[in-house]
Amino acid sequence: MSRYLARRLLQAIPLLLVISLLTFAIIEIAPGDAAQMYIDPNKGTDPAYIERVRLSLGLEQPVYVRYLGWLKETLSGDLGFSFRTRRPVALEVGDRLPNTLLLSGVSLILSFVIAIPIGVISALKRYTLLDYVLSTAALAGISVPIFWVALLLIQVFAIQLGWLPASGMSNVRESYTGWLANLDILRHMILPTVTLSLAQIAGWSRYQRSALLEVLGQDYIRTAQGKGLRERRVLLVHALRNSLIPMVTLIGVSVPTVVTGAFLTETIFSWPGIGRLGVDAVTGRDYPVIMAVTMLSALMIVVGNLLADIAYAWVDPRIRYE
Amino acid sequence: MSSVNIVPLTKPRSQRGVIWRQFRRHKLAVASAIVLILLAFVSVFAEQIAPHDPNAINSSYSHGKPQPPTAEYPLGTDNFGRDYLARTMVGMRLSLIVGVTAVAFQLVIGISIGALAGYFGGWIDNLLMRITDIFLSVPAFLLLLIMAGILGGGLLSLIVAIGALNWMTVARLVRADILSLKEREFVVAGRSIGVPAWRMIVVYLLPNAAASIIVSATLAVPSAILTESALSFLGLGVPPPNASLGNMLGEAQQWIRTSWWIWIVPGVAISMIVLAFNFVGDGLRDALDPQLRD
To answer: Does A115 touch chain B (CB under 8 A)?
Structure first.
């Protein structure tokens, strides 16, 4: 297992390199260069001044030298400075990462807890009206764009009913402390979390339904029923547990979807996380931040897949990685 | 007296007939297929049907605020006084075009890679599948965001980029199908009489893999449509003044408190198109792939 882990981590290295190269290349092709971000508009027209800025940024060097320079600095932990805020990129990212992890973590748990029972009920009541309604609702849930769901929720719960805040992470007019502050964050979290979870719940419940149906068709279920075990025991101990195995993988595979969802959700709800930072960096051409956010997203996907594989081997003794 | 059971003679059903019969059972899929055909029709003739030019500004009518639906403007106007019905029609057309062409593009890449990997095996398979793995770990939406935001570019580059980042599922499906077909007698026979590889793949193998390709292509269209609308929603997809359902929703955000039609209409339109494709894909899967039926 540890050898397998080591190999997987080694395989992640070329992947991260390819992604960094790709992003670097896109930025390179873009019209204009980083010097424009540093030019003082008052002295901006003087060509000698622009040339000095370019020289000080190392922009006269060929592209591969600059890429290797970026790589070396990144590996030594120096992510550079944001063009927009002039703060270190590591701080910009570090400030927001916990917020994104909070939002997506809670939404993953919520999705799991809600999707599993829905899928199980659908499978047990297969071909009934209830199953039909749940399956159709799930398909609808996948089809509705997440940013429109967000607008709907804002319209109903923030504007019409006025129950929940529509944006931000805390109330800026009040300065709460202690558990009141946490409660305030919780209130701000509800709408973005629900938005992020809906599509997940829809997809996963469909998956859980077919996973359970497949297990219920297996021989060992018939054996368990044949030897007279109570239905509930067969279902909970023999069937449900085994149907959860593919779900474990699915959660790891869902990381890209959650990352994508975070970009949209955080932007709409002004949630101060990595996703919003990324969108702002792209619209503001903040190249160092773009590089950092891209690498972080790729790393999250790699880690998600790896965790899914480890969990898979852990819940299913038949799986052994060499 | 011994009775004789008379078996009524029925005409054997053609494969196409079986598929059509199976598909027809899925009522929602049939309804969705009809909706999609209607939408395609509306899209083709959008300019003729729409009462107004989708980009025509009428600021003396709107006074800087979205105007509610009237007889003249059945779905109201936006804050520039542009006819929302016409913009929605054009937006739906754009969604259909993006969805279908991006998927066509990803089919070309996915089928080629999957067929080569599955048919030749060995190091070719290894290499192509490693590349597929890499693409599966790419944060695709972010990369699209960066490309669209920094390079700009138009609709065509958006379509190409969506296709280039989403061919992996098709490649894996085609590879798996070809791997299992490869062992069948007709392939062994074909090879032994010297049928060239490309002919073997194109004429004999791919048609046998058509069922899973069609299903996955149908289900890939909605995700391409959602990707485009999400990018446009963030203001990084289709540039204004051209209407896309996504950028209509993005602009609608600031009017959400006052004008319901401005954010309801494009959202319903996107959801309807995507849902219709998902239902048709579901129905096609039931009809074409008996093993996947649950």
So the answer is: no
